[in-house]
């Protein structure tokens, strides 16, 4: 299947979500299990009520089967997201968030809303944070030149969203600079 032109130089959102599933997350297992041997690495035995660290994809499967409780990551709390929103509004730099915060938040909110305290408020804060960061990324156009663009602390999804536009803009600016130097 041919991809739309906008996605040809970028990942699809599904591909980014797939990549994010390889992150680790803590769970509290509800069942005892021996160590699990995977190609990537071994997963420690599950001994309730002790926490275990597993891949997000495994945590989501276990959660759907009611075999674990997902420990809400610190960055997905009301307090943490409010601080990040304040930083976004008061600083030029993007605030520090996990590289896959958007994808992980979506996956966790979809699959384990009962494991995330104040999930409704979290959704609102994430939406506001995303909008603020999108505005900042657009403002980055004001300082765009044909050699360099510095935007630290963007997530993979945010990079992916702006990549096609910035790539095209960089190429056009280079082309115009070559013409100017040739005259």
UniProtKB/TrEMBL annotation:
Domain GINS subunit per the UniProt entry, residue ranges: 75-175
Task: Please tell me the species this chain comes from.
Answer: Rhizopus oryzae (Mucormycosis agent)
Query: Where this protein primarily resides, as one coarse class?
Result: nucleus
Subunit structure, as described in the record: Component of the GINS complex.
Question: What is the recorded name of this protein?
Answer: DNA replication complex GINS protein PSF2
Q: Domain of life, per the record?
A: Eukaryota
Family per record? Belongs to the GINS2/PSF2 family.
Keyword RNA-binding belongs to the record:
no
Keywords attached to this Swiss-Prot or TrEMBL record, sorted alphabetically, are: Chromosome partition, DNA replication, Nucleus
Q: Where in the cell is it found?
A: Nucleus
Signal peptide coordinates: none
Tell me where in this chain the DNA replication complex GINS protein PSF2 N-terminal domain is found. Answer: 12-71
Q: Which GO terms describe its cellular component?
A: GINS complex
Q: What are the GO BP annotations of this UniProt entry?
A: chromosome segregation; DNA replication; double-strand break repair via break-induced replication
